[in-house]
Structure of Phosphoribosyl-AMP cyclohydrolase:
Amino acid sequence: MTATFPTAPDSHALERGAVLAPSFDANGLIAAVATHAATGEVLMLAWMNAEALQATLDTGEAHYFSRSRQALWKKGETSGQVQKVVELRVDCDQDAVWLKVDPQGDGGACHVGFRSCFYRVVEDGKLVERP
Amino acid sequence: MTATFPTAPDSHALERGAVLAPSFDANGLIAAVATHAATGEVLMLAWMNAEALQATLDTGEAHYFSRSRQALWKKGETSGQVQKVVELRVDCDQDAVWLKVDPQGDGGACHVGFRSCFYRVVEDGKLVERP
């Protein structure tokens, strides 16, 4: 699948326009933050290329791009932690998206086993697990 | 100011350790998502280099790295929208941080004038402003 999005012609179109014109970085990626649609908790932060964003829009399930594997990645394909997208927002300069998701499977999002990937708080310079 | 952080020796230390060992990308950056400490709303997504992260930890106020200006950037320095950090979390592979912040000034975070940078929803492929 090839996916292409337009480029915003100017900053007004980028910031106030009705056209989805993602500003991909030099690696062809935008940042994607997923929050739990019911609780608001930040679950994970990942990246999308054009193909992942298009697949997410087409299917209503979150797709990302794995920087380590350099491959499209449907969240939950192996873990069952599929993310049903309830709402997708884009930020002012269209280089980040915010997905409100309904996690399927065991309801988690993190490969380590926690509900959210952000299970550690920085306290006095040290990391403390506080899921 | 120069800031350095250790590198995690293995994946267990990275994922379960108590040592803050951010995994900066090829450009020396990690992603940072800021949510409103009171409402949970995602306010913005930006980047931090080591210096920005250290300054944030030292001062309790959010500092980022501007990719467009290639410079350290204290949020709110000109706008007054200083972000008091209530809690700072790091994700499983330590390449992203989540800041819960208390926005000062007019309480907003976005240069366009909205409270959150994510003021547009993607609906049927089009962007709809819904602050």
